[in-house]
Amino acid sequence: MLKVAAIVGSIREDSYNKKLAKFVQKRYKDRFDLEILDISVLPFYNQDIELDPPQEVVDFKAKVKEADAVLWVTPEYNASIPGVLGNAIDWLSRVDKVMIGKPSWIMGASMGKLGTVKAQAHLRDILFAGGLQSPVLLGNEVYVGEVHTKMDEEGNITDEATVQFLDQVVDNFLAWMKQFKQPAYV
Ligand code: FNR
After folding, report:
1. CA atoms of 72 and 122, how far apart (whole Å)
2. 3-state SS, residue 108
3. pTM of the prediction?
4. Which DSSP helix (H) or strand (E) runs through 69?
5. How much distance in Å is there from the Cα of 74 to the middle of ligand 1?
6. How far apart are CA 137 and CA 177, in angstroms?
7. How far is CA 57 from the centre of its chain?
8. Mean pLDDT calculated for residue range 30-35
9. Residue 71 — very low, low, confident or very high, per pLDDT cuts 50/70/90?
């Protein structure tokens, strides 16, 4: 089965984005295997230690390397991505550069109406940087706005339109993955 690594841009216990990742993991468990990686264990990126990093970094990069694709699920902080996510990305972008050629798709949830539009725009831009070069699924932009009205305590999405949209995006992601070819220069 297709292996997807989920990187969630919030490390708080009750994170809506964590719940969204878990919902995707559960609902589509027969379509692809989603492993949610824990970025809270990563130390601050520091160039002084990048050639011999702590085990947590080694393990995190290995998980990303062995995944067929990465699903990014992120909140928006100050009109951009959270620092904790930027930190994880910095680790991935250096030395063995495990994101190069790795397909990505993006989702985000917020309590505001716009549902992480700016954060996702920045994230897409970041994923095109030299140290990442990750092809991103086009269109299919999942902005779950006013998430507190669309999810129950257990993290089930109760809004039928949102669930139907996610079903469509998952179909499109899997169709894309079926014919995905890495860029010739990778
Ligand atoms: C936010 N939040 C927020 N929301 C938004 O739509 N645009 C923004 O620019 C910001 N900025 C921001 C900065 C900081 C430091 C915090 C803590 C929060 C609100 C944010 O969307 C909300 O807290 C979400 O619930 C965070 O996602 P998780 O942790 O629930 O996944």
Report:
1. 12
2. strand
3. 0.97
4. strand 69-73
5. 10
6. 9
7. 17
8. 98
9. very high
DSSP state of 95: T
Place of tokens 């290995």: 62
Task: Fill in the amino acid letter for 51.
Answer: L
Distance between CA atoms of 62 and 116, rounded to whole angstroms? 28
d(CA 38, CA 45): 15
Report CA(14)–ligand 1 centroid distance (Å).
Answer: 13
Q: Whose CA is nearest to atom 22 of ligand 1?
A: 110
SS3 of residue 105 by DSSP = strand
User: Ligand 1: which residues within 6 Å by Cβ?
Assistant: 10, 12, 15-17, 75-79, 110-112
Ligand 1: nearest atom to the Cα of 19: 31
- The single-letter code of the amino acid at 6 is A
Q: 125-171 pLDDT, tens per residue?
A: 999 999 999 999 999 999 999 999 999 999 999 999 999 999 999 99
Q: How far apart are CA 185 and CA 164, in angstroms?
A: 37
Structure tokens belonging to residue 100: 């190069």
The contacts of residue 86 (CB under 8 Å, 6+ apart) are 126
In the predicted model, what is the mean pLDDT of residues 75-85?
97
Are 182 and 7 in contact, with CB atoms under 8 Å apart?
Answer: no
